Amino acid sequence: MPELPEVETIRRQLAPELLGRRIDCVRVYHDDLLLGPRNRREFRRLCRGRRLGPAGRRAKFLLFPLHREDACDAKPEAVIRTQLRMTGRFWLGGQRPDPLEFRHPGAEFVLDDGRTLFYDDVRRLGGFDILSIPEWRAVEGRLGPEPLSASFTARRLARRLEPLRAPIKHVLLDQRRIAGIGNIYASEALHRASIDPFKPAGTLAYGEIARLHRAVRRVLREALDASGTSFSDYRAPDGRSGSFQNRLRVYGREGAPCLRCSTSLERAVQGGRSTFYCPQCQR
DNA sequence: CTTGTACCCTGACCGC
DNA sequence: TGCGGTCAGGGTACAA
Questions:
Q1: What's the CATH number where A71 sits?
Q2: Which nt is closest to the CA of A276, judged by C1'?
Q3: Is nucleic acid strand C under 7 Å from A6's C-beta?
């Protein structure tokens, strides 16, 4: 479901509410929501009684640092890594969320202020694992740069694309190359940069890469400012929708006119996923 | 190393 | 009303 702007929106809403809270009780309703090697009992044991540090995000992962009760100021000893994948959602409140809207309860984290963090996931492709800090550092080291960070430059992007023969659209989805971009914003960025999604990444001219770099940052920034893109099921934890779906230029607009040149937009399948593009102005 | 494919799972929708 | 096929914002394991 969510890409970088949606996950970051969720993080911003949850972070101030969760900071310093103690996890008193954990319930996990499906084994397949535990994505790591730990079973439910181990997961509960590692969470219970821990205090939450500031919620973080890297790529599309939400991170909940866990501190020992007696050493809250020190570095966390572990982190809960959450992946929402396609349909994972959070809701935080004093009672259960509306069961008509949250029909697939996956897990609950009861906090010491009486509220509970609920996780709901229709397809159960998302979930949690607990990583020690060295384990997390190893995982994080394999991820590509954060596209909104100051250190993500066009030059750096060019170096990462240069050896790759795969289509640029496919490369944008590869979290080892660039972190946080998913199927919506890959199509949107390529359209804004007027680049053919099928073009092999390593054949892009530097000028094209510079345009792509700007387009990626701009579209993610604008989506973040709009609290993300909401289709039928995505909601932020406060229940509000994002509004960026009104500003998508190609995603989901197959057959509609290109906003730049009026050519009918097309949909193609790359690596099993839809790519939306303008056959006229993306070359 | 790269690249492609299968797979995890449920639900909405479309054509028959 | 039912049935089969397709599609959905993701990531990983595995084979070639």
A1: 3.20.190.10
A2: C9
A3: yes
